[in-house]
Amino acid sequence: MKNHFHLMVRVKEVHEFDQEKLLSERGWLKVPNASRQFSNLFNSYAQDFNANTQRTGSLFERPFHRKVVTDDSYFTRLIFYIHNNPVKHGVTGDLTTYLSSSYQSHLSAKPTLLMREAVLTWFGGRKEYIHFHQDMSNEDFGDLFTHPVSGRRP
After folding, report:
1. Are 95 and 101 in contact (CB under 8 A)?
2. If you average pLDDT over residues 28-39, what whole number do you get?
3. Torsion of CA 100, 10, 127, 123, to 10 degrees
4. Is the predicted pLDDT of residue 149 greater than 90, yes or no?
């Protein structure tokens, strides 16, 4: 899509980090802050993009928004929402053929950094994952992505 993207990221809890490994392999004395890591990623990308296109200034119009997934229903709907977003915005007519989506990556056998098996298992398997996406109507997602403070949609 031309003006935005969606990511679903699982952030590890502090107790899930191997403190010794962080120190020995990366020299980190503390667990990384997810917001800081995303800030660094977006800033580095913008600097590289600007350098390669001979432009200056901000690349992103506003800071990224994050929302904690707190229940199973929201998690399930969020996966569909992300996959269906290019259809919603008229980029493609079929979410299953949109190449810049994780939908096909979840079904592929190619190596990936995605948590493919966890997602497919969540839906009960490959066939159920496909069936869910086929059956999910283009319902009103209403407040699925409202800003937690302002109530505005990003």
Report:
1. yes
2. 80
3. -140
4. no
